[in-house]
């Protein structure tokens, strides 16, 4: 009997020590605080030129860059789906009015946070602006029309700037991906309007390079994302 009592007492002591150890560990390691907002400088480096891509048109430029910081459900467009009116007007005319309204609706619903809208840029050339993100809206999407073109545009598509550890990325370079909005069937940069009826879906655009074997050519530019605070 004494041995049993001694065993029970020993187990009680060990259990108490383990509980104290767990409590001490939890007190010593409080949860990490949520990451604060971040301001990013966004630079679009347009490299599209006669030396990089075939059939380079006169007066080549990109329309005013527009986009937003957003949640995962705040995308401006989705490849494989129909373009919104805002994406259609941006891609065909470089007109951001409807797209700006669509972004404002995303803001009202909480899906988008801040808007970025820049200026027209000749290609080759560079344009830069800033935009704020927060932990609830860590993604960035931007678009700009390839001009002249039927309905072609380049984009920064749903770029998440929080890393795997929940910290803001210091710097990142992303190729400017080219897309066809699926709303005009013109085959060349300067083709007359040829409305696609019914409209097709947004799809990657393949442009032949000025030289070299690559079937899709180099990107038309690069997005440089730099945290500035």
From TrEMBL:
Keywords, A to Z?
Signal
Q: Where are the transmembrane segments?
A: none
Domain Spondin, chain residue ranges per copy: 28-218
Signal sequence interval, chain numbering: 1-24
Q: What is this protein called?
A: Spondin domain-containing protein
